[in-house]
Amino acid sequence: MINLSLNKNKGYAILLVTGPISVFDIENLTTEVDQYIEEFGQLSGLIIKVEQFPGWDNLDSFFHHLKFIKDHHKVIGKVGFMTENNLISSFPGLAGHFVKAELKRFDYGQMDEAVEWICSN
């Protein structure tokens, strides 16, 4: 499950992942992000807050997630990962080879630091 909070004034979104990601979650995320990008041109960044990654509901959810990344990595400037999960902690280094967005990891409680980084030029 993804809870989306979009800060339209500063141009970033916070995704709180609290349970397995569903197709509905990705479709909702896509709709919200696409509406913002259509109006403003680019989303400065995403902050993904996930203590322990819960996975996806099913394989279809996983493929929807990959499609979101493929369709949006060029129009989202930065992606910050707030996590204590060791597997997710290594994700920015690995994914950085495949996406245009700048990626960075933060400790789970470092919301202020993540927002500051997302909003910096």
Keywords:
121 residues, alpha/beta, Transcription Regulator spoIIAA, 5 strands, SpoIIAA-like, SpoIIAA-like_sf, STAS_dom_sf
Task: Please outline what is shown here.
This protein has 121 residues and is of the alpha/beta class.
Would you write up a description of this structure?
The chain is 41% helix and 26% strand. The chain has helices spanning 23-40, 59-72, 86-89, 91-95, 111-119; strands at 2-7, 12-17, 43-49, 76-82, 102-106. The protein is an alpha/beta fold. α1 (23-40) packs parallel to α2 (59-72). It has a five-stranded mixed β-sheet, with helices on both faces. The protein has a single domain (2-119), classed as STAS domain (Transcription Regulator spoIIAA, 2-Layer Sandwich). The chain has five helices and five strands, in the order ββαβαβααβα. The longest helix is centred in the first third of the chain and has 18 residues, at 23-40. It is globular, with a radius of gyration of 13 Å. The protein starts with a strand and ends with a helix.
Note the topology.
Blueprint: E1 2-7, E2 12-17, H1 23-40, E3 43-49, H2 59-72, E4 76-82, H3 86-89, H4 91-95, E5 102-106, H5 111-119
Parallel strand pairs: 2-3, 3-4, 4-5
Antiparallel strand pairs: 1-2
CATH superfamily: STAS domain
Sequence of strands across the biggest β-sheet:
1-2-3-4-5
Q: What's the overall average pLDDT, rounded?
A: 86
Query: Could you say how many structural domains there are in total?
Result: 1
Protein name: SpoIIAA-like
Pfam family, one: SpoIIAA-like
